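During the first year of the project, the team set up a workflow for recording each protein of interest as an amino acid sequence followed immediately by a discrete structure-token representation. This format lets reviewers and collaborators read both layers of information side by side without switching files. As required by the reporting guidelines, we include two representative entries from the current panel. The first entry is reproduced here exactly as it appears in our internal archive.
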Amino acid sequence: MRRRPGIGGLQTAAAVRDHYRLLGENVAKLRTDLMKEQLSTFRSQLEDFARKHKNDIKKNPVFRSQFHEMCAKVGVDPLASNKGFWAELLGIGDFYYEHGNDLV
């Protein structure tokens, strides 16, 4: 007959579970921190790109559409508000947003 684990076995199993839980929390925190860092880097590079190509974004409707499509894929909406960062950077706001929706 096989013996069932006693108190020592139960305590060991609980310690193992706690260890794995802490390990999982640490891994999740590391991944979250890395993702935040990557998003910060991406945002700064996207801002630099927008500054560099500001005139093309304003004047070329095809380029503006491609830029907006790229931003939409990553969850950034440069046309969302006339008081936000993107409106200040690109000089666009609700007026252009409404006309952009007319074209779609």
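The second entry, processed by the same pipeline in the following quarter, appears below.
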Amino acid sequence: MDDLIPIGRFSRMSRLSIKALRFYDEQGLLAPARVDPATGYRFYRRGQAGRAEAIRVLRLIDMPVGEIRDLLADDDPELTGKRLAMHRERLRDRLAEQERMLRFLERLIDRGGNVMPYQVTTKEIADIPVAGIRLKASLATVGEVLQQGFGTVGGALGAAGVAPAGPPFVVYHDVIDEQTEGEMEVCFPVPAGTAMPAGPVHYREVPGGRVASTIHRGPYQEISPAYHVVTGWIEEQGLTVHGAPREIYLNDPQSVGSPDELVTEVQFPLAP
């Protein structure tokens, strides 16, 4: 009992807040050495400080809690090294992405908000039968959620033995920004009347009609100016948006040499 340290003192020692210590206990990362049955007060041992520091550092470098749990549970140094190497690569990829976004921001500022010339056109499109799934995401999770959505719909089509009938697209039913979580729909065009197996993937027909459209060439993360141009053009023409915008992915990210080669169509449905 002499070795036990109250949670407040262990918090100061480990530089982890009491709230964080309780959370890590709930997640199975760092359980207290003893919990007083009468008061529920938590006590730790000095020997737990090393594990607490490892958790603190791993969270500072943005390793997900689940991966930290797996890493700390490993007794095999080789496997632990592989987990750290995988996260190191993830951090390198993130750094490269952030540097690329900074270059994009510099171009955006230098050119007064116009990074590339967008030509807006209108056209009539037919109703589109799709297999789709509706998902919610925040700005922080939208990339991961979309990836999962494409995998889910693609897997359902594979299970049904159905080949996509056109390029996939996403319908953004809500605005998604730093403050707002919103709903989006991942869609794969399919033959009309396609029967989907039971599960989260549904069949429906996305309404056709007149749309305002432009083509964005380059990384998906740099597509916002295309939205600015199309919505501005619609307003200038005295037209009215009538439905959620769509992004149609005209080539496969796995088949291009770099994100600069990606081609995406942005469509806004227009009122008749």
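For the second entry, the following points were noted during internal review. The chain has a mean pLDDT of 87. Helices lie at 7-14, 18-26, 49-60, 65-73, 77-110, 142-160, 224-236. Both points are flagged for discussion at the upcoming steering committee meeting.
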